Structure formats: structure tokens, C-alpha cells
Amino acid sequence: MEEGKFCQSCAMPLTEDIKGTNKDGSISDDYCKFCYKNGEFQEDFTMEEMIEFCIPLTVANSDMDEQSVTIMLNKVMPQLKRWKK
Ligand SMILES: [Zn+2]
Predict the structure, then answer these.
(1) What is the total count of domains within the chain?
(2) Which of 24, 8, 28 shows the shortest CA–CA distance to 16?
(3) What is the pLDDT of residues 18-39, one digit of tens each?
(4) Which residues sit opposite 40 in a β-bridge?
(5) Prediction pTM value
(6) Residue 6 within a domain
(7) Distance 44 CA to ligand 1 centre (A)
(8) Cα 72 to middle of ligand 1, angstroms
(9) In this structure, is residue 9 part of a structural domain?
(10) How far, in Å, is the centroid of ligand 1 from the Cα of 43?
(11) Is residue 48 part of a domain?
């Protein structure tokens, strides 16, 4: 697994088994399968909605509390390809 790779939509660590798929069926190096399938985003989220959605999941999967996760996601999300302006 390549280090420092994150889904460019939800910031989840991007491992081989959760990579999404492009329109032509090839594997996406940018997005996870929960966000991106067959070249389309699964959820029509705004960045704010994505952060709201990710907070409880990240809290459940890490030892950070809700406040730290909120701060972290608000910092990380705007850097991601999907949300970068
Ligand atoms: Zn994702």
C-alpha cells in the first residue's frame, strides 16, 4: 500500500481493496468505492455535507473525539481534489 494516499472525496485511507472504479471499469487512484463507482460520485454531497457524514464514521474508527475529528476534517477536506477550487 502506498503511504499517504487518501480518497480525494472523503479522506478515507485509500487501500487497494476499497478503490473506486472509473467509467471504463479501471481502478481509480483518487477515490474510494463508497464515493466513486463507474466514473460517478455516489453521493451528491457538498463538502460541508461530506464532513458531517464523515464525523461519526471517523470517530468510530479512530481514538479521536468528535471535536478533534471536526477540526481535522475541516482542515483536510478543502485540500482534496474533489473539493479544491
Ligand atoms: Zn471516499
Answers:
(1) 1
(2) 28
(3) 999 999 999 999 999 999 999 9
(4) 37
(5) 0.86
(6) no
(7) 12
(8) 16
(9) no
(10) 10
(11) yes
